Structures are given as structure tokens and as C-alpha cells.
Amino acid sequence: MKINELMQLIDREIPLSKADSWDNVGLLIGDKESAITTIMTTLDCTLEVVEEAVQQQCNTIICHHPLIFSGIKNITNQGYGAVIQQLIKNSINLIALHTNLDAHPQGVSAMIADKLDLINQDILMPQLSAMAKLQLFVPESHVMQVKAALSEAGAGQIGDYSDCFFQLEGTGQFKPDASAHPYTGEVGKLEIVDEIKLECVFEPRLRRQVEAALIASHPYEEPAYDIYEFLVKDMFGTGIKAELKQPVQIGNWLKEVKSKLKVDTVRLIGSPDQEIRTVGIIGGAGMDYVPAVRQSGVDVFLTGDIKYHEAHDLLMNGLPAVDIQHYAESVVKEGLKSLLESFDLDVPVISSTVDTNPFKAY
Ligand SMILES: [Zn+2]
């Protein structure tokens, strides 16, 4: 498998377009034509991780946190430049899957929920995507022709189903003006016609080709149709809400959280005696999403990077929370390996064993 084939597959399954606009995902360093030997997954790409890849004869690293983020002014043998140099020297490809992986239903927050054996998982804040609906009116003689043309243009696709239409019989009427060239009827005379009302959906990006197909396949000089856009819940989104198999006192549960997420400390904001069942999770730094987490009604919020005054705000507002550390995202090493393997790649995938947590507890 070549890198460009892997990138196409990734873009289909974990679309790069789902990443936040400020992010930097995709192939950051590498050769699109190179053949992949082994893929190594990691949370961060450090020098130690590159060394491990070399030892494991692995020429492709997929990291969660982009090594190249913004404004790199020089690449020397120090700091991040040294990592970039080592990757290039050793012909190692580096791919970053960051907020696009966060947005995936099996993304990092879901991987944390899996580690904690949580059930009934659902996206906490689903993304909304635009869809377009077309309704048109066509004489019965041309229904199949119009449907075929619309399908060909990409309309009528719902998930894994193509050629999805709904139709209803009715009566249309029109009076052609002097300059008209009507398909049926006469100038200046009211024409009553049996027509079919046809409905289908399509992605708004296809609008131009769908309209062109409709006009080309419809027998009327002026086909009557309406297109309107609406928002639908996407399968992608931010965070996960899930449930514990049975209610627990939060203080009793935290030891388990710590060991399952392999972090040295977790910090509770709230009473250890509170009984909880529903859990909201945003891997990494999730404090920007507190209003949505509160609205979701979960009993406790798990995230990382909670600052002192943010913790006070949470206490004041009565939302129990646990700082599980940003490094809880290291579940991505195993989780991404499993996700990639589920895509039936024909190359081996391994997880880095390097601990890249910059914080060490004493
Ligand atoms: Zn992160």
C-alpha cells in the first residue's frame, strides 16, 4: 500500500474535512508514492518515537497531535526541527489525524469511553450538515427518464442507498404565453395535465449538476421545481456521552478511571460522595464546551487541561468534573490501531510504547 492510497482511505473513513479550520491534519511529512512497511500510531511524535519507528523498521507514523502546527520559521537540529530532520533522514512519513479523529464516532473520546467500559455511547455534540431537497413536477411518461438522470447526477443517495425517490400523483395546469413553445397544450389556452410530484434529496455541492440533469431530462420548456436546504444531524461530532453499567459514587470510581486510562493522577472538582451514572467526555482540552456538556445533562464531565479558575467556575455552577489529564488521550495509540485495522489495511499497524506525557508526578 502506498501513502496516497492510505490517505485516500483515511479521507473516506476519517475525513480530513471534518477537522477544525485552525488544525493541521493529513500528510505532514513524506512521499505520497512511497510504499508503507509498517504504520505506528502515537499520541505525539517525539524524537524517542521516531527512534522507536526506526528500530521497528516502520516508515509511517500516524500521530494525533500535529508535529507541524503553525509558524515554523526554521528547521535546525534542535527542538521540533530535530524531529523533522530525523523523520526525513530516515524516510519516515508522518500523518496527523487530530480534530478529524476527535469528530469521528470512534474517535478519541469514544476510545476513552471504551477504556472505561461505558455503555450506550452517543456523540455529545453532533455536527450538523446541510442537505438539499428537490421537488419537481413531471408528466408520468417522463418520470423514469428524469429519475435516471437525477440519480446519475448524484441525487437520491441516502447513506448506502441510491435511487431514493418519493412520488405522488396530481394535477398541474399552465397557460402558454405567445412566445412559449409548449411541449403539450396550445398558446393562450389553459392546459390541465396529469403529473407526478417527485421528491429526492442531494448534497448541496451537487446542486449545479442536479439542476442541469433535471432540465436536460424534463420534457417541459420551463420545468417547475423547488430546491431548499436544511440541516441534518451528522454521524460526526464532538465528545461522547455514555453511561456506567450501574450508578457509582464518583470518589469510588476514580481509582478505576486512573488505572484504566494509565494516568498517574486524576483531579476531582466536586463532592466525592455524589452518585453518578451518565458521563460526558471530551478528550484533550474540553473546557470550551462546558455549556454544551451542561445542556446534555450528564452527571459528570471528564476532560483535560482544566485551569484553576475554570475549576472554581465548575464548582460554582455545580457541574462535577474530573481532570483526567490531556495525556488520557494516549488511548489513541491502541484505539487508532484497532480503528485502522478495521479498514482491512494490507500493512501491519503497531502502537508506540513511548510515554510522551510531558508531566511527571512526584
Ligand atoms: Zn489532544
UniProtKB/TrEMBL annotation:
Gene3D superfamilies: 3.30.70.120, NIF3 (NGG1p interacting factor 3)-like (3.40.1390.30)
UniProt keyword annotation of Glycosyltransferase present: no
InterPro entries, alphabetized: DUF34/NIF3, DUF34/NIF3_bac, DUF34/NIF3_sf, N-reg_PII/ATP_PRibTrfase_C
Keywords: Metal-binding
Signal peptide positions (record): none
Metal-binding listed as a keyword: yes
Family: Belongs to the GTP cyclohydrolase I type 2/NIF3 family.
Protein name, as recorded: GTP cyclohydrolase 1 type 2 homolog
Species assigned in the record: Macrococcus equipercicus
Lineage: Bacteria, Bacillati, Bacillota, Bacilli, Bacillales
